[in-house]
Each structure stands twice: as structure tokens, then as C-alpha cells.
Amino acid sequence: MPLALLALAIGAFGIGTTEFVIMGLLPEVAADFDVSIPLAGYLVTGYALGVVLGAPLMTALGTKISRKRMLMLLMGLFIVGNVLSAVAPVFGVMLAGRVVASLAHGAFFGIGSVVAADLVAPQKKAGAIAMMFTGLTVANVVGVPLGTLVGQSLGWRVTFAIVAGLGVIGLLGVAKLVPDTPKPEGVRLRHELAAFRNVQVLLAMAMTVLGFGGVFAAITYITPMMTDVAGFAGSSVTWLLVLFGLGMVAGNLIGGKLADRALMPLLYVSLGALAVVLALFTLTAHNKIAAAVTITLIGALGFASVPPLQKRVLDQAAGAPTLASAVNIGAFNLGNALSAWLGGLVIAAGLGYTAPNWVGAVLAASALVLAVLSAALERRQSGSATRIVATGAPAEQATPVH
């Protein structure tokens, strides 16, 4: 694998750390600014919304410059946002810093996925994408726990200063290691937007929202579920999240390797198994050992679908994939927000802390249905094109096959 992938993975590590570390530092931030925990929670919500909105916006703005230069600008934006958070004198400035940092998130992963795929041979594209996303998954195993520990020991501002330092390392790595290839000739914003007329691109994004949403329906409420239902001490939740992160790392690497061989079968297996495991979590959540194993499996199965879904978007938007790739990153965060909201609804309805697992199972099963539908439509398109060619119809009348 090219060294350029290491630079992309370092940037992904920093982004993954800053996205999730705030969850462990909310009490400290709230106390420092003298605001309530729910109000401090806007630091999480604001970041997620910034990713959803920033992914298409920043990618569209970057269509006029090379991908390497855009990646460098995004890392610069990430650094500024985290420095702003680290020195924020009031809560509003802290929130602004979170939003600024989030604007780099979706576009970095979207453009980075295209760059990573272009660095390797066609049969290794999903593996290259997975290598970049390894930075995000390792952040949940190493960056988030360490960042939380540092924040609780030395102050949350130190954590965000360190994350800004990671951004500097990522920026230097991109500048030094990523090849400076010119932007594709003839590709304009209208070409990037045209990808969204392809129903297969839209189906892949819908699978992203529902499939990964299934994961976060359960994980968002993992603390009350594990303490009130499984009987874990509150201090054990950190290590349970480490298990979840280890599952993410393993699933991401395995998914990247297998997606280059059998993309759609991998999606069938990972989404179907995820739906089953989430449904079983309503039972295994009552036993400590079974719960720990289930959490690891949810991380593995959830992230096994990430490389194939990202590659699916790149394949279906071939020729102008950058914007579609970035929007698909926003779709992950949209799924997180949707599932957290739905999970909160069923808990508020009095169905218990394990009820979000059923929500997750339904979301994952819905993603599986869309995967089957997508494959059926693709076979139908291929069959139509074959019949047209066989009858000697002019090429311009043939149905395009994506």
C-alpha cells in the first residue's frame, strides 16, 4: 500500500478522535462554561449537522482545484476549528469551533476515498479505502479513550490542542506523501451533480443511512443499557467502547479485503448478520459476557459494510465521483442522527433501554432489502443492455450500465 494512505489515515485518526472524544468530556466542558449537560450536547449535534451540510458544500467549492490541495485546505480548516475549541472563552465560541472542524469531515473522507482508490490497482480499491478508514476506527480504540483520559486529568482544552497537533501532522503528511495529480479534465460541478440522477447512487446512500444507523441506534444508548440492564459499573463503559472500536477495526479491514472480491455478497452477509445480532442484543444485554461479545460483533459487522458501500458509490458515480463520495460520508452521520432520535423515542415511550436494539435491527434489515433491490435493478439494466446490443440497436439508444 502506498505511503500516501498513511497520511490519509493520520488525518482520519484526528477527525475520528475529535468527533467522538467530546462525548466523554461533556461534563467537564459543561462545568467549565457553567451550562447544562443537555446544552453541552449541542457540541455533538452541531458537529453532526456540520458534517451533513459541509460534505457537499466543501466538495463543491473544491471542484476547481486539485484534490491534494483541497485535502490540505480541509486539514487546515480542521486545525483552525480545534484550536478555536481549545481556546474558546465562552460556550458559543466552542460550538463555533466544533462546527468549523466538522466542515472538513465529510469532504476529507469523500475526497480521500477517491484519492485512496486512485492510488492502487482497480482490484485493490476497496482495500485502499479501508486503509484510510482504519484511522477512523483506530481513533475509537486509542484516540478517544486517551483523549478522554487526558481531558479528565489535564483539562479538556489540552485534548483539543493535541487533536489540533494531529491535524498538523496529517497536513504535513498529505503535503509530503500524496501525489499532486491535476483535477480531472472536463469534470465540472454539474457533472458531479449528475451522479445523483443515478438511482444506484441514491440506493447506496440510503443503505448507508439505514445500515450504519442500525449500529448507532444501539451504541448511542450503550451506557444506560450496560449499567442498568447488564449490571456493569459506569467505569466499565469505556472498555466496552474499546471492544466496540476493536470490532470496527477488524470489520473495516476484513470488509475492505472482501469487497474487492465480492462486493454485493459482502453487503448481504454483513447487513443481514447485523440485523440478527442487533435483535439478539435485546437478550444478550442482560448478561455481561454475552453483552461484551455482542458489542464487539456490532462494531465488526457495522464497519464491514463501510468500504463496500463507499466503493459502491464510487463505482456507480464513475467519472465524477467526488461529490457523491463526500455526500455518502454525510449519510453516515445522517444515519447516526436518525437512529439516535428513533432510539430516544422508544425509550421515552417506556419500552426500556434495550428497545433501541430493535430499532437498529429494523434499520439494518431495511438496508438489506435495499441491497437486494439494488442488485436486482442492476441485473435488469445489464439484461436490457445485452438485448439491445444483440438486436443491433444503435449505441446511443442503449441503456447505460453503471
TrEMBL record:
InterPro entries: MFS, MFS_dom, MFS_Efflux_Transporters, MFS_trans_sf
Stored PROSITE patterns: MFS
One of the Pfam families matching this protein, by short name: MFS_1
Protein name: MFS transporter
Lineage of producing organism: Bacteria, Bacillati, Actinomycetota, Actinomycetes, Kitasatosporales
Alphabetical list of CDD domains matching this protein: MFS_NepI_like (cd17324)
Transmembrane feature ranges: 42-61, 73-96, 102-121, 128-150, 156-178, 199-223, 229-254, 266-283, 289-309, 330-352, 358-377
GO molecular function, one term: transmembrane transporter activity
Native species: Streptomyces boluensis
UniProt keyword annotations, A-Z: Cell membrane, Membrane, Transmembrane, Transmembrane helix
Superkingdom of origin organism: Bacteria
Subcellular location: Cell membrane
Membrane protein topology class: Multi-pass membrane protein
Major facilitator superfamily (MFS) profile domain sequence ranges: 4-382
A single cellular component GO annotation: plasma membrane
